[in-house]
Amino acid sequence: MKEPRKKIGRPLSFDRAAALERAMHAFWRHGYETTSVAELTSAMGVTAPSLYAAFGDKQALFLEAMRLYAGDSAAIGAALAAAPSARDGIAAMLRASACAFTDAATPPGCLLASATASGSRAAAPVQAAVAAVRGEVGQIVRRRIEADRSTGRLPVATDAQALADLAIGVIQGMSVLARDGVPRARLLALAEQAVAAFPAG
Q1: Do 175 and 87 belong to one domain?
Q2: Which terminus of the chain is more exposed, N or C, with fewer CB under 10 A?
Q3: What is 49-87 written as a DSSP string?
Q4: C-alpha torsion sign, points 16, 134, 106, 179
Q5: 10 with 94: CB under 8 angstroms?
């Protein structure tokens, strides 16, 4: 009698969502290029064939993990739109970032800032995708500032693009500081200083 063929690939208990979240944390902690497939499979609790079957290659896995981390851009826009003013909404965003970057339950900093910080030419597509996500968030912030300017809440001379760039730049800078071990209180203080640079609205 022939022995039954062993099944390879995704195990019956495979939880795709949980595995993706664990991959996200691995990329977040170690970066895209320095996280090997072996480290990913170990973190995710799956075999290499399972990883490829469920997610494709490492780049595809990272891009999906990045989308999980970044969340829905529509939700970001809705939160800013619901704030009393652009200044209030951006202040809330900065404070939330300071808290998220220093959460003991997750790696320090921001995945978007740290995962591709020192990528090679081979990682260019991944870097471009990360930059596109940052750019999208920046444009959401800019449009909220422009809305306040158009209603007179902010001065006509307000440079919406510069203020949006300031917000995104501060968030990315806080990520670096968080990875350096700077405590939450200092990041929150930095957030308040950045908010002080915005016109009152």
Answers
A1: yes
A2: N
A3: HHHHHHH-SHHHHHHHHHHHHH--HHHHHHHHHHSSSHH
A4: positive
A5: no
Side chain identity, residue 71: G
Q: Is residue 5 part of a domain?
A: no
The predicted-structure confidence for 142-172, as pLDDT tens digits, reads as follows 999 999 999 999 999 999 999 999 999 999 9
Instruction: Give the pLDDT confidence of 92-120 residue by residue, as tens digits.
Output: 999 999 999 999 999 999 998 877 666 66
Q: What is the pTM of this model?
A: 0.84
Q: What is the CATH number of the domain that holds 86?
A: 1.10.357.10
Domain count, the chain: 2
Alpha helices in the chain (DSSP H): 16-30, 37-44, 48-55, 58-70, 73-82, 86-101, 111-114, 124-150, 160-179, 184-196
For 102, residues 6+ apart whose C-beta sits below 8 A from its C-beta are 108, 178, 183, 184, 187
CA distance 43 to 23: 7
- Distance set, CA 200 to CA 95, 98, 178, 197 (Å): 17, 22, 28, 9
| Nearest Cα residue to 99 out of 24, 178, 198 | 178
Decide: helix, strand or coil at residue 117.
Answer: coil
Burial of 161 (0-12, 13-18, 19+ CB in 10 A): middle
Task: Please tell me whether residues 24 and 90 are part of one structural domain.
Answer: no
